[in-house]
Amino acid sequence: MNKNDISIYASIDRLPKDSRDRLIREIKKNLSLNSSGLFTNNSNRLDSDSAAQVEDYLSEHFMGESFLVRVWICILNFFQRERRKEDIYKIYILKRLENSVNYVYKNPVIDFRKGYLHMGFVEMFFALYRHSVKLKEFFRMLENGNVVEQTMLEVIQSKIPNFKHKMEDFLESGEYEKFLKKEKSQNDLEEAIKAKISNYINSISLQTYKMVEDIFEFFYVLNSFAFFPYKSFFSFFNIEFLDDIENLDAVNLDNAISASFESVDKYFSGLFDLLHTLRSIEVNEDILRIIIKNYFFIMESDEDGILSEESLLKVDSAFKSIVSIMSKIISLAKTLPYLDVFKIYYKNPVLKPKKYIPYLDIRSFYENILFLNVNGQIVKKHSSTLKALMNREIKSLIKNYSVILDVNNLIFKGIDLEYSNFKKLYFLNEFFKTIYDITMMEVLKIVNNVVLVNNVDLRNSFISLEKNINTLRKEIYDVCFELHYRNEEYEKYKRDDKDDDSYREKILERCLNEINTIESLVINFTDYFIDLKKKYVALLENNNALIQSALNISYKLSAVDNEKISLAFVIGNVLSIVSQALFIVENL
Length: 588
Known about the structure:
Elements: H1 8-13, H2 17-30, H3 48-61, H4 66-79, H5 85-104, H6 121-141, H7 147-158, H8 175-180, H9 186-202, H10 206-226, H11 230-235, H12 253-256, H13 261-278, H14 285-300, H15 309-335, H16 338-346, H17 362-397, H18 402-405, H19 420-451, H20 456-495, H21 501-541, H22 545-551, E1 554-556, E2 564-566, H23 567-587
Antiparallel strand pairs: 1-2
Helix pairs in contact: 2-5, 4-5, 6-10, 6-15, 7-14, 9-17, 10-13, 14-15, 17-23, 19-20, 19-21, 19-23, 20-21, 21-23
């Protein structure tokens, strides 16, 4: 005979009378059969009419899968902490009952989709759990694009007159430029921003933060409910134990179910505290709609930030669905008898759950989100701001700056080239022609022949560097001359209307070879002028009396100008020009 053919009633009849009566009472009590009207008298016997009613009741009201019923059985066992021989029979009978019902009926006996399962605490627990699964999907959906954080920021800023949020609001004038020029480290910049943001945050009324906390309380309480660790909760009941009911060791039953009551206490307490809080929660529908709309803006809006009609319909549909789920959860928390179960579990009729409020520190959130947003602006604007600063620096340093910025329109037009290195070459060419040759070379000679005349070793290192720079200068002039010649040849070829791909490829190959040369020149320029900077800085800081005396020599600005300044001041200006040139070369 198939084990599923064993009648539950036959199994009950095998029990001794006392055990059978006690078992029937337990089943009636645990299934709430008395309150369901299935038994019209107080007898502990199960008559044939009642048996039919029980099967009808089970077929109409049980739903879901056997796993959930097994969990329920374990919960019932857990509440009855003392395990007796009769308890083993009860587990056996209920398991047989489940098998029998599932065998007899074609459709699943347990179907949570229809919303039935009128069994007191079990009804509450699994109805809430079913809603929590749907709610968790919603919260996980919102993890994309920091939707909730964006909404919270909007709400906070709507409560603050003239709120600050731009990078410029938290940076002193020129601080960002110093960072771009690497005169200020990223850590120093971030510390300066943090200090400004902290001062701004402290200037906002605490009442404003409290107001926003209250607005979002519903969201975080429901979030905590959705992400309550149900799986860990289930694990304490050792569900696998029931999967092998035939081989159950009755003698070893206590060892088979290894629940830590202290741990389960923690989970039950947390769950009931959440439910207690849910009773007083109201869904802020305006905020919820904004959150959902922001999600679809991030995920589905077009380049202009506009949602299509279809997306707007999705917003409305999602809003109605989520409000419905949240309302059902709150309604269940208000109406189901969880408080009675809580009292029974703790065996204290006056014990009440505390109100559970997730800690939501709006002030710290606003401070952190502002810092992240400002940092985000710094990263986002870095490229464009750096380019604008570099162009400004070129224009302030080089009079004929157009030859650098428009080099792609001046040489080898029509050939697919990366012009960055050519821009660097033309900058170096203009730098040497208009700055180094006119002013810096003379300063170097004065330093070598006047300041360091009595310091042979130091003077030799300066002279060696000067020779390297002059060699580099000549190489740059030569490469530029060669490029001009090649470009004139190319332009003449174009004017003659010769369309020869082989010639264009030859020109391209030459240009690529020149790029390798230019890269080498740029590296040498960077190395030499960094060395020059270090030498000049060390010279200005040198405590040698003769050197300091020489540095204070008056230096005439020009042949027609009688105004004089110290050599140290001139060297300081040269250092500024060198820093400017190195910045431009690095970022062109």
